[in-house]
Amino acid sequence: MTPRERLKEARRVVVKVGTSTLTHATGRLDYGRIEHLVREIADLANAGREMLLVSSGATAAGMGRMGLPEKPEEMPKKQALAAVGQGVLMHVYERLFAEYGLTAAQVLLTRENYLQHKQYMNSRNALLALLEMGVIPVINENDVVAVDEYKIGDNDTLSAVVSALVDADALVILSDIDGVYTANPATHPEARLLPEIPEITPEVEALAGGVGTKLGTGGMATKIEAAKIAVSGGITMAIAPGGRDGVLREVLSGSTCGTVFPAKEEHLKLRKGWLAFGKRLVGELQVDVGCERALARGSSLLAAGVTAVEGEFPAGSCVRVLSEGGREIARGLVNFEAGALQRIIGHRTEDFARLLPNERVGEIPDEVIHRDNLVLMM
């Protein structure tokens, strides 16, 4: 089955819409655009699909309600605007979905809901219960209480995490750009739209630009990061133009629209989904080609194949594993703190006792990351 056919067959779909799609250039909410979006989601729900909406726009809605021309710099003021705007935005969604006979539910999340496995499971169960009841979850990050340590960071990432959380079949990110181009189309008129990206390579990541608009927080780079999460979770992802009427029906009909990222065949198991996307990444390990091949065959990560360590972290932390070319190939929980890792990389297990004299013999792990605590991202 092709990626476009998978989109056509998708039963559980997460839709992410950004601030730039929901607002006018003035920064105020575009009610016409929101109504078109709600009507499309309602129509797809009536056709038998389970729909979840990850919506930006709370801060912009708060700015409009308070008559502010631009977003303030101070975090408390941003959080205050989000508090005002969440109510405004949710009232709009509730009223519009109700006109089509559907019920919407507000769900506010932070990274803390993913860091703790119990909270991760509670979030998952609540969302699945809403879907079972025929409710449309409208999801956003809880900007009012989130601090940097517990911020997911942007709604592109949030939408991918939510997609993995609920075992979605598809994620559609509606953007102010048609998809991924070979270059920035604003400055390179010869740039071509890429209809499909079968693998996220460093070259693909290099195509991603920075922040898109003054109102939003995401750019193409965050969408590429979201794609990594989605496809590794067995989810087909598409980036499509949010300003086009009927775009959701177009994407989910299998038409050639936007850019599609094919799902990897093997879905992550539930615990590994939490491990890959719930835990906070605090460091990086680079490995050689032989080690990369061993990981692909299902091996644990051994110190002999590690060539470099970046970051300061204690044992039990979640780190990225990179290839020699800098491509992310895995994530996992390390058995050693960063300083100890620096001493043992490139060495065999039998050398550990000599290299780590302060550790008790018999209590030193054989693996840097055991395969049960390792998630492949390639």
Please render the helix and strand layout as text.
Layout: H1 3-9, E1 12-17, H2 19-22, H3 31-46, E2 50-55, H4 58-66, H5 75-99, E3 104-109, H6 112-115, H7 117-132, E4 136-141, H8 155-165, E5 170-175, H9 202-207, H10 220-232, E6 236-241, H11 247-252, E7 259-261, H12 270-277, E8 281-287, H13 289-296, E9 306-310, E10 318-322, E11 328-333, H14 338-344, H15 352-355, E12 374-376
Parallel strand pairs: 1-2, 1-5, 2-4, 3-4, 5-6, 8-10
Antiparallel strand pairs: 6-7, 8-9, 10-11, 11-12
Q: How would you sum up this structure, described in words?
A:
The longest helix is centred in the first third of the chain and has 25 residues. About 4% of the residues have low confidence. Strand 10 and strand 11 form a beta hairpin. This protein is 38% helix and 17% strand. It is elongated and about 70 Å long. The protein has 2 domains: 269 residues, 3-Layer(aba) Sandwich (Carbamate kinase); 97 residues, PUA domain (Archaeosine Trna-guanine Transglycosylase, Chain: A, domain 4), CATH 2.30.130. It has 378 residues and is of the alpha/beta class.
In short:
38% of the residues lie in helices and 17% in strands.
| Approximate strand percentage | 15-25%
**Morphology call:** elongated
**Widest beta sheet: strand line-up:** 3-4-2-1-5-6-7
Q: Any guess at the CATH architecture of the largest domain?
A: 3-Layer(aba) Sandwich
Radius of gyration: 22 Å
Main beta sheet, described? 7 strands, mixed
Give the N-terminus to C-terminus distance in angstroms.
Answer: 20 Å
Order of helices and strands: HEHHEHHEHHEHEHHEHEHEHEEEHHE
Domains counted in the coordinates: how many?
2
